[in-house]
Write a structure and sequence with these properties.
The protein is an all-alpha fold and 191 residues long. Helices cover 81% and strands 0% of the residues.
Length: 191
Amino acid sequence: MPPGCRLLDADLTLAEMVIANDESVDALYRQTEARAFDLLARQQPVASDLRVLVTSLRMVADLERMGDNAVHVAKIARRRYPGSAVPAALRSTVLQMGHAAEEIVAKAGSVIAGRDIELAAELEKDDDVMDALHRQLFTAILDDRWDQGIEPAIDITLAGRYYERFADHAVSVARRVVYLVTGERPEPTHV
């Protein structure tokens, strides 16, 4: 079952696992950063090697932030356990956001591994989907018919923001891969 579904179903085990694994992600980030700084200091890279190091440093920071956003979503689920943090009226939208986040992270991994600039361009469109879902959440919460209360509104607002930022960081990674491969910074395809 995808993590987006588990958030809906208040899967405490998954939430705890995501939270616990954050330290591993942070440790990998610190190790990568330390190795890059060591290479910068000892090897004094230039041209394409320097571009790889600097771009990699920026990418690992985005990836680490993606992990932090996943932790924030898991903490919302944990805080509302045994209930669901997602009101029934918004289950479909949040489920779509969870699926979109899973596709985005898988695609970002493929972009990095294959230095695939065509696939990187697709992440911009995936981000547009996430942004539209994020707007749907706000539309529902701000609707005069919203009767779920303040706590669910806050949970949904925060979860929506975390999912939206997760996608933004993936797009940033994709743009950095394009820069790494082409040496040119891609222009955003939307505002």
